[in-house]
Amino acid sequence: MAPLVAPLHPDPTLLGMLFLMSWALGTGSSPLSGSNLAICVRYRIAVRDMLRWNLPYAVLGWGCCGLVLALHAGSV
Question: What is the pLDDT of residues 8-47, one digit of tens each?
């Protein structure tokens, strides 16, 4: 993804922070991530239940990440 936005000359620290936030939210909340699939198989949990349980984490994380990015934009 970084080579695609390189012509726009983004701030490398901000871009790295965005990638890290996206990875953290995707891995923790997606029922198709490897860690969540392993948990579902090991403990015989329905994927639908795992998605429903992780939804508050995803919404809260999305809000916190948005707040951090908004604070960064306000300080620049």
Answer: 888 888 889 999 999 999 998 988 899 899 999 999 999 9
**Backbone region of residue 46 per phi and psi (left: phi > 0; alpha: psi in -120 to 50; beta: other values):** beta
CA distance 2 to 54: 28
- The answer to whether 46 touches 39, Cβ cutoff 8 Å, is no
pTM of the model: 0.78
Q: Residue 23 in contact with residue 16, Cβ under 8 Å?
A: no
Mark residue 9 as left, alpha or beta (left: phi above 0; alpha: psi -120 to 50; beta: remaining).
Answer: left
